[in-house]
Amino acid sequence: MRFVLRRMAHAAFLLFGVSILTYLFAALAPGDYFDEMRLNPQIAPETVVALRAQYQLDRPLPLRYVRWLNSVMHGDLGYSFSYNSPVGPLLLVRARNTLFLTLTATLLAWGLALPLGVRSAEYLGRLPDSLVSWMTAGLLVLPDLALTLGLLLFAARSGWFPTGGVVSLDFNSLSPINKLRDLVLHMTLPLLALVLTALPLLVRHVRAAMTGVLDAPFLRAARGHGIPRHRLLYRYALPAAANPLISLFGFSIGSLLSGSLLVEVVMSWPGLGPLLVEAILSRDLYVVIGGVLLSTLFLVIGNLIADLLLYWADPRIRAEPVAK
Amino acid sequence: MRNHRARSRYCWMALSLLLAVAWGAAQIVIAAPQLGAPKEDLLALSGEIGRPGGRLVVSLRAEPKTLNPVLSADAPSREVISAMQADLIHINRATQLTEAALAKSVKVSSDGLQYTVTLRQGLRFSDGQPLDADDVLFTFRVYLDESVRSPQRDLLIVGGKPITVHKLDTHTLVFEFAKPYGVGDRVFDGLAILPRHLLEKPYQEGKMEHIGALSTPVDQWAGLGPFRLKEYVAGQRLVLERNPYYWKTDAKGFRLPYLDELVFLFVPSADAQVLRFQSRDTDVISGLGAENFSVLSRQKASYTLADVGPGLEYNFLFFNLNDLTGKAPPELARKQRWFREVKFRQAVSAAVDRDAIVHLVYQGRGAALWGPVTPGNRRWVDTKIAHQPRSLDHARQLLREAGFKWTSGASGDSALLDADGTPVEFSILTSSSNADRTKMSTLIQDDLKQLGMRVQVVPLEFRSLIDRIMQTKEYDACVLGLVSFDADPNSDMNVWLSSGGTHLWNPSQAHPATPWESEIDRLMEEQLSVTSYERRKRLYDRVQEILAAFQPMIFLASPDILVAATSTIGNFHPAVLEPYVLWNVEQLYVRNRAGNGSR
User: Residue A283: which of B234, B463, B491 has the nearest Cβ?
Assistant: First the structure.
């Protein structure tokens, strides 16, 4: 319990630090949301000054930060200049779409990476390992953007998959089976893009972790005792190789909100990506800060989960004195 | 027992009959105001007769931010709002002239100070509530309220004073201007008349800025446009449905719009917009880039592609002519001596290859510019301005006359020197997010290299760029573009008046810095109050000629308005004024398979 509390205190401290830095970087960059209005000949400079004052952009930075912190405590995460509404609900509704996509993609990627990495390590230096290595090397050298655009082009040319959105416009009038089919079709390409991007890294980590374990004396002894191959690999070898993979899993959770921004923009997936890109371009300050804070929160949660899993999985960590 | 049952049955029958009568009476009472209401003054439109029904899907690059016309400042919001709201007087995007809309008639007093507007009788908002003069009074009260901070408020300040409005009767209002205003009727375009019955309470509570969020329940939002809110899915789409109370009909008396639904699909990138159009997810793309237009033109598909011609966007290069006495670093002060030399600016203008810009940046789909008014603005373009072809010899001659000279550099290139022997070197700022302007800047860099000028192109994030040119004023030159909201010169008053905030080369001057800026001020102020088009045209032509002579902005090019639609869309007549395609959305319709639109 002390371990958990200590980690949570670290997390809160980290979030606070990130919020200050993000706020500083975003607010100190030259120009603001209302600058574009200065180029509108129909809007008088006095109106722009009044609008900046209305949104308190003319106040000292520490005061603005404290006010924003207050709104974070109320769950608003600040106020969007462009949407004229609190940032929290704006992010939340889109974060649901992002999480739906990234959670599925993460599960799929890990579900594929574990058997591929294990098999690759088992057949180290032989044909299956070479095939997996070539495949992962090919995916690693392919830029994410090129892969995503390629998939989108394939969808447009073949007509087999929709080129954007979560569901069709006529979704509500479809039968339950067709609704499911429609959803799966819409998700296929964004999922494929995310899984293919994440897969090589995961496979290589699993392979590296397993390679180090498979030669261990306890496994050779277990093999000698005639324990079946499958049980040997997944019941004994994998848990022994789990530590680096658990850390990596924590990182996967951490990138749930931020890992799909590019795919979302290119494939018109209505998640956080399009909102944050637009907010960055238009300097919608609090939407940007809110997005960064939410992503950091996920990173912190991911790390916390990874720490807890390591604590649970590795007796050596449990044996360490917690408070030093 | 049997009697009791029979009595009970009769009781139930009597009760049912009573309920039926009560329901019928209630229906009559509900319908009574409609029966007693005055006959609707509907506006009949000429043009192709369409076919009712169907859905049009339009892609938008960004989500609209609000449905509130008082606060909207972004293009997607304006496009959506234009389909849901209506104004008293409207600018016809095809003719670029004003025409009565919600106003049945407009009478202008002989001194041009009073506009008496009579509303059409019997009109209703999209929720069925009637429109009257109180709605108009409320609307202008909101727009003019300083605390609301409507971006359109400044349009309603004429001669330094806000327009005043008062009601004569339930359907007649008088608008008074502080001084004669040449185009008072154009002021009303885009000022949506608000539903007082829905907005008065939140306005009085000071919550106007919270009104009109996209997630507003459909029964709490109403307008006088052809469509009304049906559904909003965050980040995905906004669905509008036909307004059954709309006040326009076609030539056969059918109440418009033809379409049942208008769907705005949010597609965040230009390339994705094209792909979704190709896969038939969307029916219309407004504002295509030249490259994507070429891609679509090469495909033999059933699209209607339209190059409407140059729009109202003008791109230009300008130098830092701000008065920075004592504030500018010595290097900038030295450069400003070159920039202030008219012949230097004329030489730069003569050296710029505008045709190359049109071909290389816009793939030929644009127009070279020598003045601020594009050929797309047919009524106001000054055709007398000479379209000087690129001439390096002429440019060198002008520079020689201004005291510049050349020397051979170590690499054999000749370098331009000023009278003090300092090499002419400067940087051009441009927006990093605008690929077209970055290309233009690179072409200018190459053109000016041939005159011996060393130019550096500095792409900057857009808001940092604006901060540099409007706030810190630490820049040498900049390539930028402006889009006039209206064809009329009044929409660019703040660009040409020396006191204007968008007088980019030297904004917000207390007194005109040069005699020619003073002359432009006088001409622009004069045309503002003149009502005769011919006289205003002469005055504005003179402004254009002064700009062409003194080159405070070196005008470069204007891109064509490029749009695409599926060929099943009828009454598709895109215009150069926004919204390019949806300006006649009430008349757009989906043809049947035989291509026949008539009913």
Answer: B463
Residues B237 and B324 grouped into a single domain: no
What would the 3-class secondary structure string for B188-215 be?
A: HCCCCCCCHHHHHHHHHCCCHHHCCCCC
Q: What is the pLDDT of residue B31?
A: 43
- Residue B535 contacts A, CB cutoff 8 Å: no
Verify that A128 and A255 share a domain, yes or no: yes
In angstroms, the CA A306 to CA A302 distance is 6
Please check whether residues B233 and B326 belong to one and the same domain. no
Reduced to 3 states, what is the DSSP secondary structure of residue B392? helix
Query: Pairing state of beta strands B43-44 and B261-266?
Result: unpaired
Which residues 47-76 of chain A have a CB within 8 Å of chain B?
47-48, 50-51, 54
Query: Is residue A39 located within the same domain as residue A104?
Result: no
CA distance B246 to B127: 11
Q: Which residues of A touch B268 (CB under 8 A)?
A: 265, 268, 273-274, 277-278
Number of domains within chain A:
2
Residues 209-228 of chain B with CB under 8 A from chain A are 209-210, 213-214
Residue B37 has pLDDT above 70, yes or no: no
- B217-236 pLDDT per residue, tens: 999 999 999 999 999 998 89
Q: What is the mean pLDDT of residues A166-184?
A: 90
Q: Per the domain annotation, does A135 fall within a domain? A: yes
Size of interface A-B (CB pairs under 8 A): 159
The CB-based long-range contact list for B539-544 (8 Å cut-off, 24+ gap) reads: B540/B380, B540/B382, B540/B489, B541/B382, B541/B384, B543/B489, B543/B496, B544/B371, B544/B372, B544/B373, B544/B382, B544/B385
What is the per-residue pLDDT for A321? 57
Structural domain boundaries, residue A54: 14-76
CATH number for the domain harbouring residue B386: 3.10.105.10
Q: What pLDDT sits at residue B593? A: 53
**Shortest distance, CA A123 to any CA of chain B (angstroms):** 42
Lowest mean pLDDT among A12-16, A240-244, B14-18, B81-85: B14-18
Task: Provide the residue type at A134 as one letter.
Answer: W
Same domain, A99 and A47: no
B265-271 average pLDDT score: 88
- Between strands B164-169 and B172-176, the pairing is antiparallel
Distances (CA, A) of B46 to B50, B102, B252, B468, B584: 11, 17, 9, 50, 12
Domain hosting residue B493, numbered range: 313-559
Q: How many residues does chain A have?
A: 324
Question: What is the β-pairing status of strands B313-319 and B553-566?
Answer: antiparallel
One domain for residues A49 and A122: no
Asked whether the beta carbons of residue A45 and residue B501 sit closer than 8 angstroms, the reply is yes
Residues 220-249 of A with CB under 8 A from B: none
Of A42, A169, A274, Cβ closest to residue B235 = A274
Distance CA A126, CA A46 (A): 73
Q: Which of B263, B278, B467 sits opposite A169 (nearest CB)?
A: B263
Is 0.95 exceeded by the ipTM? Answer: no
